[in-house]
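Internal ticket - ligand job 500, inosinic acid:
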Amino acid sequence: MATYYMEPSRTFSEFLLIPNLTTKACTPANVKLKTPLVKFNKGEEPAISLNIPFSSAVMQAVSDDGMAIALARSGGISFIFGSQSIEEQAQMVRKVKGYKAGFVVSRSNLKPEQSLSDVLALKEETGHSTVAITDDGTANGKLLGIVTGRDYRKSRDPLDRAISEFMTPFEKLIYGKSGISLSEANNLIWDHKLNCLPIVDDNGNLDTLVFRKDYDEHKENPMELLDKNKSYIVGAGINTKDYTERVPALVEAGVDILVIDSSDGYSEWQHETVQYVKQNFDVKIGAGNVVDREGFRYLVESGADFIKVGIGGGSICITREQKGIGRGQASSVMEVVEARDEYFRETGTYIPICSDGGIVHDYHVTLALAMGADFVMLGRYFARFDESPTRKLKVGNNFVKEYWGEGSNRARNWQRYDTGGKSKLLFEEGVDSYVPYAGSLQENLDKTLGKIKSTMCNCGSLTLDELKANARIALVSATSLVEGGAHDVILKESSLSEEG
Ligand code: IMP
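stdout (structure tokens):
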């Protein structure tokens, strides 16, 4: 006979936090959001912690190298999507690991025999006014000179004038040698009143450029998530099919942590994948998704370093409609947290839990953390920002960004190309959609973090451990949900919520 669970499963929107005493020490500035990313034994430090409890979803429309750099800069982590070829994914990981904040690969490059009209056309196309002149016109060719707006007069100089005649030649350039630190580069910039410092290797080839403005930007990110070599920490999604080829390539590219990306992780396939990784590599791996204690226990005993929770709650997800599997996100988190705490008492090993999907309002993040999740994973939230890899479009009077599920035909197309059309999707588990464009990641994240810290102060908590231990969470009735928003008034347009 089937087992019945007659208590309805719950979502975050059905709960509210009850304030605790706010002491005078409880100010948002004093709140710390550091949280473990991987398992650790009692009394020890986790090998990797996040500075903010945020990760971006393993999705084509969310987590590429650009998002990974932006989020690591703010203290969180991206898991680069695995629904692409192994080489492309490894290349994205390599770009994140090779990225040195403040050192940028030159994006505007020309050859000395090209002309002023080429400079102007490139400026029009890229918006950059600094052009590197290299022997072969590439970003890493031999550096022969630099052209900036100060080297020509657009109104007077003939358009066919060769660049070699008006560029600042290499002999007159101030430059740094590869390996220079950002602060040394910055000193050269200030001492010589430069806007841009080229960095050149021992053979005279252009390595990167350092711009004056980037140093200031870099200094503003004290939360950034760095490994011991001062590179950004990055994760990557894997699957349970091609892992014997994908994992070695990702490890070789320098990935810090893997996660198995699946809507249902309670499977022998995941057990085998985790075991393979643990037996062959010194790299961390998360597994999931699960929604109950049995799934949690199974994957932890397989060796997983963190567990991802959630089936069917994602904004683009139609798994519940299509397959009839899933569980309310809050109920899933609560049960898995209970199992995690039980496991900790038994073994002394703490397993971080990631609440994945279904975050609609910022306070849902606070609730997930208060319920015991260590960090959250979001897709829709990050898809709205400049840094997500998708197109920004105008629909009617509003700007939107594209956002599609990994289980949609759109995301699965890469596989069909790979397998010559043999693995056609039988049915979709995700939709293709738009989300409202919301601007830059940093600006939005600052606002969200501000709200979380402020709520934590309401709950008398300065750390996430205190929040977990002290939170008082109340289930609310369907009718009281109505009084939670503005009600019985006619809203003026300016006071309508901006939240996506
Ligand atoms: P969101 O933050 O609510 O948009 O949810 C993002 C999460 O939805 C991801 O991290 C995945 O766990 C899940 N997801 C991504 N693509 C699909 C899909 O096509 N079907 C079902 N779930 C998906």
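Auto-summary: The chain is about 35% helix and 20% strand. The pocket of inosinic acid is lined by residues 57, 59, 263, 310, 314-317, 319, 356-359, 377-381, 405-408, 429-430 (CB under 6 Å).
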